[in-house]
Specification:
Helix 1 runs antiparallel to helix 2. The longest helix has 20 residues. This protein has a two-stranded antiparallel ribbon. The protein has about 120 residues and is mainly α. About 40% of the residues lie in helices and about 10% in strands.
Length: about 120
């Protein structure tokens, strides 16, 4: 038995309001910010070889991701007329949950549309 078809017509789209995700409020950000220097110093002292530079760079970039003071874009909304500040992201793949989620969604979209 076939299910009845829904009438095709214009759907009402409610505009979403932009809200910054505030990474500095997360537990991971607070832990990394509070203990990064201690962790790096202890890693240098305790181990024969220091951490690879890319690890330290990823951790430091994570602390800048989504923070307006470290870079932003000003965007203008044509529908409501407001100007928005959008913080830049680190675009790293190791530590940052926000950038990892964005990359994962992009990969899933690519796979479903192109593969």
């Amino acid at each position: 038995m076939r299910s009845p078809r829904r009438a095709k017509g214009p759907t009402l789209v409610t505009p979403k309001r932009y809200q910054r995700h505030e990474p500095e409020a997360t537990a991971l950000y607070k832990i990394v910010a509070a203990h990064l220097e201690t962790f790096l110093a202890e890693a240098r002292e305790t181990h024969e070889r220091a951490l690879p530079q890319y690890v330290e760079r990823e951790l430091r970039e994570y602390l800048k991701c989504g923070i307006l003071a470290h870079g932003f874009l000003q965007a203008h909304c044509g529908s409501c007329g407001k100007d928005l500040l959008v913080a830049l992201s680190c675009k790293k793949r190791g530590v940052c949950p926000s950038c990892n989620a964005r990359r994962m969604c992009g990969t899933a979209a690519h796979l479903t549309e192109n593969v």
